[in-house]
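Researcher: Structure prediction, please.
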Amino acid sequence: MRTPLKMQASLAAHLMKHKFLGTKYVPLVLMMEPLHACNLTCEGCGRIIEYKDTITEQLSLEDCLSAVDECGAPIVSICGGEPTLYRHINELINGYIAKDKFIYLCTNAMFLDKVYKGVQPSQNLYINVHLDGMRETHDTIVQRKGVWDIAVAQIKKAKSLGYQVTTNTTVFKGTSWKELDELFTFLTDLGIDGIIVSPGYSYEALGTVCGGDPHIFHSREEVHAKFQELLPKIEKYRIFTPPQYVEFLAGERDYKCSPYSNLTRNPRGWKGPCYAITNGHYETYRELIEATDWDYYINRKDPRCKSCFMHSGFGGSLVLEMNGKDMIDTMKWQFSKTG
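Model: Predicted structure follows.
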């Protein structure tokens, strides 16, 4: 199966529980940013710009662990910044595993040896390595030569040690599907456990409202055109991204946003309303939920939402809006072979 049965069962139980409780805004993923510091200055990264004044701050281990209890999400994406720079990264991962959460450690892979020394392989842990293209493209985006080679070497090492490994690829405007086909084929042949793919989006922090550098980010129409090319090839690779999301990116279906399903906790507090847009930070999860006009963002009324296709906004929508046919198609996809 493309995703573990245990994860699917946990997510299904979580949804059933909240349906029974009548929860209006169901959290699915905690985007945990224990720090925003990073050893790289990747093109298109909003965090090192938005939080430059608090770049040295780190959350306490206790705050990181209690955040998942506050919101109750079954999945945690440990991101940042570069999370392996966090002083308590191994204790944090082990703490989430002890709580039986499913973890994606989102990393540029340069300091993974630190994690290998303190965290054992687990069915609850995915090491999620950032790779935005083949060698030249990736090293250009992260603005440092040699990073691609380190990432690939660490993927091989992690797999040899028994860890589950996924990759995360942000597709920018200048990246062709010829190169992406080469990358995804290479990763599938490498024995990767899953490939996550999404289009680049201009964070508010990168420029004007819905702005940023127009030379690297797609328009809505360009996203549709580029991902139309992936649709016929989706079963060729070890893609973790559900087919419904690829169809959404290709313009063949539409979803409302569900920003409440992927909420962000960082050293400033609970970030609202979503991973990409910052209107404020809140001391508690409950304050964020109660203070936000969720319908406004669900229906994408904010101009900053115009060209957004981020998985943090629409990944939860795939689950929350899933119908019977989608469930059947998802099961077929789960058992489909790659390569």
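Model: Residues 205-212 have pLDDT under 50 and may be disordered.
Researcher: Thanks, that helps.
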